[in-house]
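Contributing new complexes? Match this layout with adenosine-5'-triphosphate.
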Amino acid sequence: MTLPLPLRPSRHSPKVNPSPTITLDAQHLKKSYGRGKGRFEAVRDVSLRIGAGEVLAFLGPNGAGKTTTIKMIGGLVRPDGGQVSIDGLDPHRQSMALKRVGAVLEGNRNLYWRLTPLENIEYFGGLRQVPRRVARQRGEQLLEQFGLSDKHKTPVQKLSRGMQQKLAIAVALVHQPTLLLLDEPTLGLDVEASETVKTLVRDIAAAGCAILLTTHQLDVAEELSDRVAIIRQGQIIAEQSTHELIQQFSGSAYRIDCGQSIDPQRAGKIMDLGGTVVDNQVHFSSDALYELLDILRPLPIKEIRQDRADLTDVFLSLIRDGDQAPIRDLKQES
Ligand code: ATP
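Output block (do not edit by hand):
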């Protein structure tokens, strides 16, 4: 799929090159609400960077400060402190910066329900100073790429929720942003529509767009993100490559499935090594792997699996134990 995104060419995969061109650079953002004794620090000191073509999952429990941070990045809320730079432009001082940003925010799908998909794209393109002819051309292309061409004359209110979501993303791309703020892209969608939207998100990133993804659906975050930043009580408590963070929290234990019951003699030897036997399965720590395989020889081995954490395990562990020093990817700080 080729998206009509004339972004800076992404000459490399962000997964391979750890230092892509930086699209978003937000440093030391702070925001308090209220005054005097009622003053509340919603965002205390948040720094985020996203490279071209990279997906950063920005995660945190309710009230952690995600929306406030995103609004500061998108120029909607003025920070009390810190700076935001999008392609080197400050959205709070240089309105040109806002042309680099597309947003699909939950609760505000940015669509007019009585208008058709193409009319919506043209209208919102106009708000972003995209000439009508160009918006129409890009709109037709986006609708085709998003599988909505046959609905181009259907009012939005008659589209399914998945179609509306795809259209909301298409609308956010009409001015060809380099940074896409994406909130809960698959919430409430059925399995098939979720998969389609996830594929679109990957395609958009592959075309070079930096994506700031917020979601409480941690499986979606795990699937889509290159990096994760976790915020708790207005502060980042972890920021690292998704893969490395999960690795770090994954155990060093193995599970072997023998596909047949293990005789008491072998079970005894396994227990002497600190392993446990449950039905056809052996659970043990990795340093005993080869000794265990010797004990099991010549039984058939159906599967050997390493216990692996998922992003939900990581998230819960960090949120519950968030007083520790932040986990950071030092590569990102250079
Ligand atoms: P959620 O996941 O529930 O959407 P969030 O991480 O997006 O939460 P924010 O919406 O940024 O969190 O809110 C952070 C804190 O700031 C919350 O305690 C919230 O009540 C407070 N807050 C947000 N907006 C305002 C406002 N306009 N006035 C006062 N307090 C606010």
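Reviewers usually confirm one structural detail per submission. For this one: The chain has a mean pLDDT of 87.
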